[in-house]
Amino acid sequence: MPELVYGLCALTSLFCAGMLVRAYFARRTRLLRSSLCFVGLAINNIVLVIDFLLGSAADLSILRTSIALVAMLLLVIGLAWETR
After folding, report:
1. What value, to the nearest 5°, has the Cα angle with vertex 13 and ends 8 and 18?
2. I need a surface site. Which of 4, 19, 42, 49 has the fewest CB within 10 A?
3. CA angle 71, 25, 32 (to 5 degrees)
4. Average confidence (pLDDT) over 44-48
5. Is 29 helix (H, G, I), strand (E, B) or coil?
6. Is residue 10's pLDDT more than 80?
7. Exposed/middle/buried for 67, CB within 10 Å: 0-12, 13-18, 19+?
8. How much is the average pLDDT of 72-82?
9. Residue 33 CA to chain centroid, in angstroms?
């Protein structure tokens, strides 16, 4: 059951990233970092599903945490850049 929930989270993140990229190319607004953040969150959820499916055969927690850290840093940098 958790695999299904995290898979749906990955699809939602990809959908949000696609909408942000489309808006970026249509209006040339500053949404590129936000869309990259959502792509990173989708990759994070996909790796989480793979981690659940592999069970104890492999520990992907460091990879997942690194991906989430980079994605959140992109979002924070993008938000800080916008306040200037």
Report:
1. 125
2. 4
3. 15
4. 91
5. coil
6. yes
7. buried
8. 87
9. 11
Cβ-in-10-Å burial (0-12, 13-18, 19+) of 34 comes to buried
Other Cβ atoms within 10 Å of 71 Cβ, number = 20
Which residues, in sequence order, are CB contacts of 26 under 8 Å at separation 6+?
none
For the chain, what is the radius of gyration of the CA atoms?
Answer: 14
Q: How far apart are CA 47 and CA 8, in angstroms?
A: 13
CA gap 63, 9 in Å, rounded: 18
Distance (Å, whole) CA 68 – CA 5: 17
